[in-house]
């Protein structure tokens, strides 16, 4: 099999490439990544000379390049995106361009291969944020939850999900979508909550908690997410969507306290800052469909995963320090 992985130099994509090369030694991977601030070839230094791996620096919105890459690809795994909500609030243009137009360009190229008679499969990586916000008592999101995106980031991801489904219904392109909850683990850019807080504390800085820290997210280790994507590629049905979650609902304050505990520090290191505009209160994922149909189950306990992640950032200061300057 030959996979086109987009955004493979980012957090989840680089973990996916490591996972795939380890578990599928016969397969080949082309990693298409434009290397925005979030793309980092250091994440893949250990595989850069692996003959099964090939890096292409380029933009998913570049139709000529994407059409050139597509003809011998069996599976597209589409991670590339602008991914940080706070950045989308400041400037939404890149989010619409990459997340919507980039997805359309990839779909169009895959569709051209498919209608020419060559089998191809398209898996789109999406987020639980497309479903909007839950109250503390609402039922968790599942595959039937109506879309209600509320940030420019989640709106652009929702639009891309709709395009993926449109290419299935209109052209029959074999597609699957996963809507996953918040990921954590190694190689996450230190602007996101968990790596930001861990690295701040290593540097002796305080951690900025939005509002009263009451917002709740469902956390999943990146390896569990990638195991879920693998199961979808193996057993998922074309045209279907699968919600993936970690069964670990935690408020931002709970996460902060756990990280402080791991680092041997106390509440004096917390700095409460004004809340994010339009901050969704709660996300939570019901992954019964993925469990029943694919056998998906997160394997990494949140506290263990967090401890390993904190240790990874402690022992890999050379990876993240340049990113915080
Ligand atoms: N991080 C999470 O918690 C989470 C949760 C659910 C879903 N997702 C989704 O997973 C995917 C990956 O997220 P991440 O956290 O790894 O993101 P990331 O920001 O760490 O990485 C994104 C990668 O995409 C690349 N990229 C951006 N624009 C590009 C373009 N125009 N052309 C080619 N490459 C481009 C970047 O260089 C980077 O390497 C995204 O689609 C995101 O929406 C993320």
Total number of helices: 11
Assign the CATH superfamily.
NAD(P)-binding Rossmann-like Domain
CATH architecture classification name = 3-Layer(aba) Sandwich
Sheet-strand content, in percent, reads: 15-25%
Determine the mean pLDDT: 97
Envelope shape = globular
Q: Taking Cα atoms only, what radius of gyration do you get, to the nearest Å? A: 19 Å
What is the ordering of alpha helices and beta strands?
A: EHEEHEHHEHEEHEEHEEHEHHH
Which helices and strands, and how do they pair?
Elements: E1 2-6, H1 11-23, E2 28-33, E3 53-57, H2 63-69, E4 75-78, H3 85-90, H4 93-115, E5 121-127, H5 152-171, E6 175-180, E7 182-184, H6 193-202, E8 207-210, E9 216-221, H7 222-235, E10 240-244, E11 249-251, H8 252-262, E12 270-273, H9 288-294, H10 302-315, H11 317-320
Parallel strand pairs: 1-2, 1-4, 2-3, 4-5, 5-6, 6-10, 7-9, 8-12
Antiparallel strand pairs: 9-11
Bound molecules: nicotinamide-adenine-dinucleotide (NAD).
Describe this structure in words.
With 325 residues, this protein is α/β, with parallel strands linked by helices. The protein has one domain (2-189, 220-247, 283-299): Rossmann fold (3-Layer(aba) Sandwich), CATH 3.40.50.720. Helix content is 40%, strand content 18%. The chain has eleven helices and twelve strands. The strands form three sheets. The protein has a seven-stranded parallel sheet with strand order 3-2-1-4-5-6-10, with helices on both faces. The protein has a three-stranded mixed sheet with strand order 7-9-11. Helix 1 packs across helix 7 and helix 4 (93-115) packs parallel to helix 5. The longest helix is centred in the first third of the chain and has 23 residues, at 93-115. It is globular. The mean pLDDT is 97. Bound molecules: nicotinamide-adenine-dinucleotide.
